[in-house]
Amino acid sequence: MVTIADVARHAGVSSSTVSYVLSGKRAISEETRRRVRSSVQVLGYHPNAGARALAARRSHIIALMVPLRTDVYVPVMMEIAIAVTTAARQHGYDVLLITNDEGPDGVRRIAASGLADGLILMDVELDDERIPVLRAQGTQATLIGLADDARGVSCVDHDFVAAGALCADHLADLGHREIAFIGYGSGVYHRHAGYAERTLAGFRDRAGQRGLRFLHRTCEGTYESTAGTLARVLADRPGTTGFVVQNEGAIGPLLTLLRTSGRTVPEDVSVIALCQDQLAEQFAPRLTAVTGSAQELGRVAVEQIVGRLATSSDGGRPDDDRALLTPALTVRESTGPAPLLP
Amino acid sequence: MVTIADVARHAGVSSSTVSYVLSGKRAISEETRRRVRSSVQVLGYHPNAGARALAARRSHIIALMVPLRTDVYVPVMMEIAIAVTTAARQHGYDVLLITNDEGPDGVRRIAASGLADGLILMDVELDDERIPVLRAQGTQATLIGLADDARGVSCVDHDFVAAGALCADHLADLGHREIAFIGYGSGVYHRHAGYAERTLAGFRDRAGQRGLRFLHRTCEGTYESTAGTLARVLADRPGTTGFVVQNEGAIGPLLTLLRTSGRTVPEDVSVIALCQDQLAEQFAPRLTAVTGSAQELGRVAVEQIVGRLATSSDGGRPDDDRALLTPALTVRESTGPAPLLP
DNA sequence: TTGTAGGCGTTATCAA
DNA sequence: TTGATAACGCCTACAA
């Protein structure tokens, strides 16, 4: 292993000079800097992470706590995790992956051991046990999602309320009057998953303002479940001409079932999805969709935690930021003007 | 921060005793062990990770390098990542997430800094640049996937050859004689992605042995692409009664298109998928599928790397293990006896 | 069975 | 602008 002392010897300077060249924390003559840099290159020196963490009292690691549960749409989680990792690297941080099932103890372990300088928590519940722990330990953290009491942490999430409203507006603009909202399975709502409840609330409010009649039905995301849901919808409201789908697994079955039942999209019924663009593009017809960027979510989360870490290590008290990312509507082939009344 | 010295004082012993109680590396009287354990509890002591890594010259961290690319089916990647994380914790390791785009330099950085004790590489290419780096640095590693020259590292992967053979056997057993193999996009084969090539090879060989006629067609996994692929298949081989699909995105479209074209599954044609069981269950009819366990893959990868680390820190030269996980066939509703000749 | 003490590689303070 | 040097917290060989 090549150490800072090796580099110092090779460059003919003291090890502290090497350290300062690398950290940029004090003025170094051009000549010395050059020599040191070159020695670092030649010897292939990389500072020992443990020693650095010990001396500087910062590990330059951010822990990312991901859900084990898979009722969340997994590709989105992964996209966020990768965005976090990429963004973190750009700020000089590495990312430690830990799973939700470690719970509050996991948070304690990571913080108390100094393994990570801060945490990013995914799949946050409104009343999340980990948040008090963070406050108690004075650990810097960012939540992806919203919580009831988020004092002492930062938050970032998609603006699901706006996303729901966008769906209502788009269908209303096209003249639809009877809408069905196909949501996630009932378990998701019972857990009070923020994204599901807030989307629905945003849709409901805007639908009310625009004079839409609508009903909301849960759906497990399998073919059978979707078939059952659709049958009930059409029985309860035969005049339904617009569908909002917030359930990745239900999209394919829904399109198939509509076709089977003799309804053409978008001439007879319009379908708008709340899902990734990539997924929306996969169907026929390609789906009009409301989307939030997972990449952006990860990037903002990293910026928040890095900001908190910086001000806290400068002795300051970080602001509790709250960021809501604006969703975007992309109109494709699955929505069109409401059919004329028969 | 509570240190080992705090615990020692609280328990009325020396800090080395605390260390030994925690590591179990020397005999400790029952009484002392009890007192130390209780002090650890009371004070909420967690060993400082940096100090530990520095002194013991092991970080107890495994780095997991994941692909940025998303033409791999993402949920599987995530499942592996989570399985790795969970399994690693059971061996006392944490997992550092790094992305493929760091390339060989990333491997160098992680190894030279001592940030991680070993690496697990996903999405390995046959001629992967990172492998020589690993050998050069003497870094312990496990590949998920196979490489041409894997000396100095361990490997684990699904037995895709066996998976392909299982598909051929199942359809042959049911009396099918003309089969179409719907694969991934051509880019995947041009990259010589092992899983794609090996599955095809396994299928081809067994198909030959069993006297099946078959053709292989690439497919991008969109609706349009699947439609084009299917049209060509049916034009080239109107007598096709069996479909093997190794492309998650093409499954839904294929089923829809078969139905649209008046073919009933499984009475007219049989469909067998190479995909996760969870996905296979989502369609109607539920799909007969050949599956490998992502969880198992992650678990074995961790066991391999932990094993390597153990023997190497004991001064030994680790074996280069090569594990192939046997896939399983689950018969569901999408395959049945070949129709009688008209 | 337990304690003492040196060292792991960096950072950062204090001098020069 | 640069150099010594004392922490940082833990592990482990050596002593007792």
Automatic annotation (TrEMBL), chains A, B:
SUPFAM superfamilies listed in its UniProt record: lambda repressor-like DNA-binding domains (SSF47413), Periplasmic binding protein-like I (SSF53822)
Ranges where the HTH lacI-type domain occurs: 2-56
Keyword Secreted attributed: no
SMART domains: HTH_LACI (SM00354)
Entry coiled-coil feature ranges: none
Stored Gene3D superfamilies: 3.40.50.2300, lambda repressor-like DNA-binding domains
Keyword Transcription belongs to the record: yes
Keywords: DNA-binding, Transcription, Transcription regulation
InterPro entries reported in the protein's UniProt record: HTH_LacI, LacI/GalR-like_sensor, Lambda_DNA-bd_dom_sf, Peripla_BP_I
GO molecular function: DNA binding
PROSITE patterns: HTH_LACI_1, HTH_LACI_2
Transmembrane segments: none
Superkingdom of the source species: Bacteria
Official protein name in the record: LacI family DNA-binding transcriptional regulator
Organism: Lentzea sokolovensis
Source organism phylogeny: Bacteria, Bacillati, Actinomycetota, Actinomycetes, Pseudonocardiales
